[in-house]
Amino acid sequence: MAISVRLKHRRDNFDNGLLDQWPTGTLHRLLTMVLWAKKVYADVKRDDMNYARIHWMEQAGCGSMQDIADELNHQLTARAALRQVNRKQAEVWVTPFHSAIMDAMNVEAVSNDPEVRQAFPESIKATFGLPVVCWKYSTPLGIVLSNEKSVVLQAHKQCDRACDCHRMPDIFKDASGHVATTNLRIVEHIALRKRMQAGTTFRGTYETVESLDDESEKPDEMQALLQSIESYCRRSCESNEVPRYVFGEWAGLLEEKLQKRYDEVAATARQEAAAARVEEEDYEEYLKQFRKRYAIITGDKAKNTYCILCKPHLSRQIMDETQGSTTYTQSQHTEAEITAADFGFVKGEGLVTVTVEEAENLQNQADEPVPPKHTLFHKRVPTFGVSLKMHKNNSLRFMAKSHATSLTQLSSWMSSAFKLTTLVSENIWRNLFQTVGIVTHGSWVINSSKQVRVRMRQMEEAQLRPSGGQQTYDFSTMYTSMKLGNEPDICHDGVKQNMNRYVDLVFEYQKQSTGGRKERGKEKVLMLKHKGLGGWRTRDDASQKDTNNLKYVSAERLKQWLEYLLKRLFVKVGNQVQQQVVGLPMGTSCSPFLANLVLFMFEFEYFTEQISSIREWSSTSSTEALDPTRRHTIQQLRRLAQCTRYIDDLWNPLVDREQFQEIVKHMYPTWLQLGLEHEGESVNYLDMTIWHTLGTPVRWHSKLYDKKVAMIEKGLKLNKFPDPASKLSTRCKYGVITSQLHRYTVACTRQPDFVPAAVQLYKTYVEKGYQVQMIDRYFERFIRSHLYGKLAPTTIKQQYRRLVAPRNQ
Questions:
Q1: What is the CB neighbour count within 10 angstroms for residue 479?
Q2: pLDDT value at residue 282
Q3: Among 178, 227, 274, 587, which is disulfide-ready with 399 (CB 3.0 to 4.6 Å)?
Q4: What share of the chain is helix, strand, coil (3-state, %, to 5)?
Q5: Interval 652-663: pLDDT, tens
């Protein structure tokens, strides 16, 4: 009887929900419908019940349910590239890390239980995979202790105040004679110093859980988990357009197994937490007095490290940067006037709905729906930010703290647009070089060390070696040197003009080169998603309407967004609002895209001119194959194609220094200064040291290069990796081992270079106080999975013991 009721419930849900909706829904909904029907069909047939109602598709000549499901699954998952994109967009199941019990429960393992995986909706699992378990942790201590924002907003008051740096020991001061140090011995309060030595990312408390049901018999941990499961199911149903009941079996089984696991570990975890609890000495009063004298900020290239600076001296530097240079000018508008104008623009573009304050009022009204969080407008402009470049003589890096500000949504949607256009511009670059027979993996623009390794393999296959030595360059003060181009009569090659040409290039290429026979030549638009990559569509103003999570962006609209953003670069410093009139602000989410693509256009236009000249020679020369000038130019282009650029860091592996420097003079405008960083047979680039063999055949090699190691050797006190006492899950703290070893395998082409880096990582974890048994488990598992047959699983542990053995004798 129970089976019959369950099957009837399944059939009713199937008939009343999915069957009526799939013709206008997504492929996920269609596949869900077929898989659900197949499941009901199998259960009915197994229980010898009447399944004539399920034969409707077979009788229509569509084949069996199994055939239909297999075909749909194949259509959704056959392409490897699509699967990779979908994996990156995989939805996350976010749970607050509420207590040590949650860590002991090992929620990740429970979610990967075979029975739980089997119960997960097939249509979502086949395309996006299982949800990724993520923890929401408490606020890092570095955010709590830092007074960077207050220093910036009070800089006009602090800059004239006298300091007492002359009384401090020299070990805490730099060449300016003022305090600038990472040495935490300057903090005299022992309890505070101990906390700060754990790093800026240290979390000393668990994440609190709001609005739990006090009358529920379930413990807080289980209530938090169940709320997070329900939140995930609701979001997944909305994004994949499937009904809630498809998650019913998975959610119910997951709750059952989590409850069982909770009952197993709760008592022991509470006892261990009570034994480990240590009462911290109160340091609030000391911290208050300390922050009156010093600024507590973070280090550039070392975000886990506290930097202590003289507060008046830093305030003077901030005021000099914003008021003593031509980069900024004082705004004629108040913050309220600026945010009011921004609200009018972004709301008119459909990027926001209401302000945060209005949303709070709606939340108190039960009948009024609250708009999504990502559409709420924040009535504030960015504040000035600063970090210390310890590796460059304690110079300062300035930025705009643009999180939750008036143009956050505009910048975020622009970033999504440029992610898509970058894929197209890379194709344009490859096609350009292909016209003269040069195969390249893409433009100079890269975003990881893996792409450098691709260039190295390509040079090995072509047996290319430097004509002189390698070089690395960087654009000095690139962000603040960028000409915005808001005044076209003064600047014809600024950010605005270059980006307009870039947008036209990409949209015209999509118009002429993509789509079927009927769609080719028609105008295209970007389809942007709040979450996910989106894509390109043929323009149809009638049907393409924006929603909170979906935007259709034409070339004109994207250029309008860009123009507005470049004219609204405001930042709050002291008691004033400054407007940046030269350069791009670091800290805005789309700034790296703008900087990259502006440089891309200079590079693309230079190579377009060079390749066009080759085509002209080819059309006029009757001895094309023997033309030495043409051969030399193509060979030079082939060598130049191997260069890479990570935003402002450029690597030239093959072209002679003098020739390359002459080329970039014609490539980039004079306001972009490209300075030589390293030169020689071996150079440091990103996190790698790169060199090649001198014999034949040519082999390109690399090994790990860590700037922090050099900084530590100079006596700087840096924090690396989480502190074992931090309130993070065990998988999070030990998982850093796996991520770092992956990084080392990318950076190191040879096993002898990988082992020392891995041993140093092992040593660091042991010295931090992590459990040796757990360290061994993570190292051995990585070696078995990724270096099988190359290294013995215990190699790193044995090498570490040999390293420390002489010290113990």
A1: 24
A2: 83
A3: 587
A4: 55, 15, 35
A5: 999 999 999 999
